[in-house]
Amino acid sequence: MIVEYIRYRIDQVDAEEFEAAYGRAAACLAVAPQCVEYELTRCVDEPEWYILRIVWTSADDHLQGFRGGEHFAAFFAEIKLYVRQIEEMRHYKRTAVRGAGGSVPSLYEWAGGAEAFEGLTETFYAKVLADELIGPLFAHMDPGHPKYVAMWLSEVFGGPDRYTRERGGYHHMLIQHLGKAITEPQRRRWVSLLMDAADEVGLPSDPEFRAAFTGYIEWGTRLALANSQPNASPPMQAPVPHWGWGVAPPYVR
Ligand code: HEM
């Protein structure tokens, strides 16, 4: 991915028409398969300055794909009047320095932190061990297993990276699933018992939290099933995934 920044200096008298033109041109970005996202911002300190930020799938996709593609003519027709007012137009590569700020709590914090996830997995694995369909898979599980899975979930949902530091991270989790040949009914039961446990221990029940939580569990269990099949060849090294709120951040009054 590559980020394009275009800085414009627009006379105040033209500002309204400039924004309207970009409003129309944006329809072309919205359907261009090379465009990831776009945003036009206006400087509050010196309102004649605008910055258009467009994230492209790659610089080539922008320069060849978009500019040579079916949407460019309509896009350019809307904004060509303003090309001479461009002060900078460059592609920037993202660096590792990026992330979310502290204005939105992590799912980990929202859930109640390490204690909440430990309570969840303790209740969950008691159900798992008593279950006739998936209990046998866990018959020889390490007594620390509920705690380790709580560490994993905490890290995934934005808590401390203890599973990575103390337990071997993704690689260790992955090898525990290899060759287990988990079936779809077993996966479903795992999910269903976890959701029962979430209700029982009182994990937050707001739609936003549960949607994000369930989204990860659905994703994770489907990967666990796929990776556990005899012919699977998943990547052996990867970071622990980080799951966020997605399209529905927490509702805060
Ligand atoms: C989101 C989904 C899942 C997550 C986050 C998850 C997480 C984990 C983790 C972190 C471990 C290793 C614990 C350690 O450090 O020792 C593990 C092991 C294991 N998982 Fe999963 N798992 C998931 C889905 C499943 C499913 C669907 C099944 C089977 C129905 C399953 C069966 C097992 C088994 C049998 C082990 C080995 C337990 C032992 O013998 O100690 N997992 N899982």
UniProtKB/TrEMBL annotation:
<dbReference type="GO" id="GO:0046872">
    <property type="term" value="F:metal ion binding"/>
</dbReference>
<protein>
    <submittedName>
        <fullName>Truncated hemoglobin YjbI</fullName>
    </submittedName>
</protein>
<keyword id="KW-0479">Metal-binding</keyword>
<dbReference type="Pfam" id="PF03992">
    <property type="entry name" value="ABM"/>
</dbReference>
<dbReference type="InterPro" id="IPR007138">
    <property type="entry name" value="ABM_dom"/>
</dbReference>
<feature type="binding site" description="distal binding residue">
    <location>
        <position position="172"/>
    </location>
    <ligand>
        <name>heme</name>
    </ligand>
</feature>
<dbReference type="InterPro" id="IPR009050">
    <property type="entry name" value="Globin-like_sf"/>
</dbReference>
<dbReference type="Pfam" id="PF01152">
    <property type="entry name" value="Bac_globin"/>
</dbReference>
<keyword id="KW-0408">Iron</keyword>
<feature type="domain" description="ABM">
    <location>
        <begin position="1"/>
        <end position="77"/>
    </location>
</feature>
<keyword id="KW-0349">Heme</keyword>
<dbReference type="GO" id="GO:0020037">
    <property type="term" value="F:heme binding"/>
</dbReference>
<dbReference type="InterPro" id="IPR012292">
    <property type="entry name" value="Globin/Proto"/>
</dbReference>
<dbReference type="GO" id="GO:0019825">
    <property type="term" value="F:oxygen binding"/>
</dbReference>
<keyword id="KW-0813">Transport</keyword>
<dbReference type="InterPro" id="IPR011008">
    <property type="entry name" value="Dimeric_a/b-barrel"/>
</dbReference>
<dbReference type="InterPro" id="IPR001486">
    <property type="entry name" value="Hemoglobin_trunc"/>
</dbReference>
